[in-house]
Amino acid sequence: MKNNKSFADRHKKLTEDIIHIIFLIFGLITVAFVLLITVYLIIAGIPAIRKIGLIKFLFGTKWASTAAEPEYGILPFILTSIYGTAGAIVIGVPIGFLTSVYLAKIAKPRVRAVIESAVSLLAGIPSVVYGLVGMMVLVPGIRKLFNIPDGASLLAAIIVLAIMILPSIIKVSLTALDAVPKEYEDASLALGANPIETYFRVSVPAAKSGIAAAVVLGVGRAIGEAMAVMMVSGNVPNMPSLFQSVRFLTTAVASEMSYAAGLQRQALFSIALVLFLFIMLINALLNFFLKRSRGTKEKHSRKRKEASD
Question: 111 and 193 in one domain?
Answer without folding.
Answer: yes
